């Protein structure tokens, strides 16, 4: 992720006309962004100090009580642990699968463009559809167990969604199915930036297909992989839709799939404890930000050189 | 590279099967009856029944939700791309104090999907009196769509050669004229990519409408699918028919523009 040679406009003094252009062009975007992204985050920090039902002005200032409650609540600990599991498993499961698929689809083969489109289908389908379909298929008397029984593997039929030992793995299968296509898109795009000359030269020198992938494609794909991992980590920390759709607000915690975000919605909005919900949002925000900054500092630094921080 | 390896094709075929299996299950399930589904959950329609589909298509709820989803997605897409390309032009082509900070501001937004801000966002929308209205969903969606759009577009606009800008300046073309006549036409691939991402994001959006839209009449498709699935929870066949109808628009839209997505992201990944 190296920035293209920066084209700096000449630095003459900025006239009022140019200033006006800058304000007119970027003003609307900044206004909307600050109003609906930055402001809500700041409001969350403010509301988080109150015990508040969401009506009128918050008056019952409770200081750090909400935060103490959150950090002592075992339900939150469990949700945090599930997020950690999902984060690690997403990287470990989706990463290698996606790299393999991208390598496969990067080869010239018949029907390549059709296969590319089909692999991205799950990514394009909404979370609600994904959740509804998988929930039906994974029921104890659903299609998956039916297929297993009909091919003589009835012993493997399980209660995929309710068994706390299994549910998190069912979730991981669904997440991989849904999001691996996005990783493949990114990796394919990254591979298109690798000049063909490199692998051609290696092939002339007698390198095998696998040697070329191992020593040329993969190292040069490094920056793309690290960017994907970043997006995946953020997505895992904030996972909400699929869990809430499949397990709903009551059973996610007993099935062992609750996340910080489902905890936030259940304890905040659904329980009409808006002060508490906002405090959970702040905790989620801080955890995400700390992890994002650490990742940027130690992993992304050499790739972006300011692309995510400086804009040069 | 073009060795015809049968194993490659076998793997590719299995893969496509895995990816499409659930989708096919949904579509075929809609053509079955509930008793067929109970007896053989993974079976084929026998006989085929079209009643589930026709009933939904002749009802009002489905079309109203399609309308709501379309309005929300189109307005979001147009606004995100318009505001995004304007701001990206400033970030890519002007030099002024605070540019780095402005870029960092939007880039930071990339780290935070709407999940974190949803509770206060709901309160904000409520205070604006926009609960149960589409603008209440659209405005936050525009705001949360901007970071991705800007991150993708800035390198795109920066890559436009300086010579073109200088030539335009010699021809007495103002910066705004340059933006309008040269930058916009040249950045169409990037605009399409960001537009598709914004459209699909809005079409599939769940959390935001879940908070903002509580009234059945204002439901978008994802909420509609979920409401339908819980209302007719015993009528699995109908739920599957409803689900498969609701995924058609996004699929059509995506298959039309698939090449553009890979093409447009190429610039972004390179940075």
Automatic annotation (TrEMBL), chain B:
Membrane topology of the entry: Multi-pass membrane protein
Entry keywords, A to Z: Cell membrane, Membrane, Transmembrane, Transmembrane helix, Transport
Domain ABC transmembrane type-1, residue spans: 66-257
SUPFAM superfamilies named among the record's database cross-references: MetI-like
UniProt cross-references to CDD domains, sorted A to Z: TM_PBP2
Pfam family, one: BPD_transp_1
Compartment list: Cell membrane
Membrane-traversing stretches: 7-28, 71-91, 103-125, 137-157, 178-200, 239-257
Family label: Belongs to the binding-protein-dependent transport system permease family.
Protein name: Carbohydrate ABC transporter permease
Phylogenetic placement of the source organism: Bacteria, Bacillati, Actinomycetota, Actinomycetes, Micromonosporales
């Amino acid at each position: 992720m190296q920035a293209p040679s920066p084209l700096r406009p000449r630095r003459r003094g900025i006239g009022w006309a140019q200033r006006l252009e800058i304000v007119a062009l970027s003003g609307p975007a900044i206004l909307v962004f600050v109003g609906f992204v930055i402001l809500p985050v700041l409001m969350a920090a403010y509301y988080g100090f109150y015990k508040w039902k969401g009506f009128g002005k918050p008056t019952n200032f409770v200081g750090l009580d909400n935060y103490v409650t959150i950090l002592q609540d075992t339900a939150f600990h469990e949700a945090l642990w599930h997020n950690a599991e999902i984060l690690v498993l997403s990287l470990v499961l989706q990463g290698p699968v996606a790299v393999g698929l991208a390598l496969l689809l990067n080869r010239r083969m018949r029907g390549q463009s059709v296969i590319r489109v089909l692999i991205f289908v799950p990514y394009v389908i909404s979370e609600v559809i994904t959740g509804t379909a998988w929930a039906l298929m994974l029921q104890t008397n659903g299609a998956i167990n039916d297929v297993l029984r009909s091919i003589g593997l009835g012993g493997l039929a399980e209660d995929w969604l309710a068994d706390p030992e299994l549910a998190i793995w069912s979730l991981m299968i669904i997440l991989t199915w849904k999001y691996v296509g996005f990783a493949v898109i990114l990796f394919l795009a990254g591979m298109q930036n690798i000049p063909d000359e490199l692998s051609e030269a290696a092939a002339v020198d007698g390198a095998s297909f696998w040697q070329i992938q191992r020593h040329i494609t993969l190292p040069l794909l490094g920056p793309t992989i690290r960017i994907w991992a970043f997006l995946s980590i953020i997505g895992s920390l904030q996972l909400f839709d699929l869990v809430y759709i499949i397990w709903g607000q009551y059973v996610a915690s007993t099935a062992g799939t609750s996340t910080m975000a489902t905890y936030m919605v259940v304890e905040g909005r659904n329980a009409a404890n808006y002060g508490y919900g906002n405090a959970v949002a702040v905790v989620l925000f801080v955890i995400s930000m700390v992890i994002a900054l650490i990742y940027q500092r130690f992993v992304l630094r050499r790739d972006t050189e300011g692309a995510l921080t400086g804009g040069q | 590279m073009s060795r015809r390896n049968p194993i490659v094709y076998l793997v590719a075929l299995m893969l496509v099967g895995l990816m499409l299996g659930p989708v096919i299950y949904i579509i075929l399930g809609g053509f079955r009856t509930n008793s067929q589904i109970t007896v053989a959950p993974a079976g084929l329609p026998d006989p085929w029944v079209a009643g589930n589909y026709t009933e939904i298509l002749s009802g009002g709820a489905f079309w109203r939700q399609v309308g709501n989803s379309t309005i929300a997605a189109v307005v979001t897409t147009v606004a995100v791309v318009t505001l995004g390309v304007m701001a990206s032009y400033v970030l890519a082509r002007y030099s002024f104090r605070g540019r780095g900070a402005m870029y960092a501001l939007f880039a930071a937004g990339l780290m935070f999907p709407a999940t974190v801000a949803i509770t206060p966002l709901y309160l904000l929308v409520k205070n604006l009196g926009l609960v149960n209205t589409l603008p209440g969903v659209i405005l936050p969606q525009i705001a949360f769509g901007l970071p991705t759009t800007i991150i993708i577009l800035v390198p795109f606009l920066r890559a436009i050669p300086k010579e073109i800008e200088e030539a335009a300046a010699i021809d007495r073309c103002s910066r705004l004229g340059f933006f309008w006549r040269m930058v916009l036409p040249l950045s169409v691939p990037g605009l399409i990519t960001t537009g598709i991402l914004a459209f699909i994001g809005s079409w599939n959006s769940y959390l935001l409408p879940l908070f903002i839209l509580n009234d059945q009449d204002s439901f978008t498709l994802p909420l509609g699918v979920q409401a339908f699935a819980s209302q007719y929870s015993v009528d699995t066949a109908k739920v599957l028919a409803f689900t498969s109808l609701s995924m058609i628009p996004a699929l059509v839209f995506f298959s039309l523009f698939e090449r553009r997505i890979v093409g447009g992201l190429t610039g972004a990944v390179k940075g």
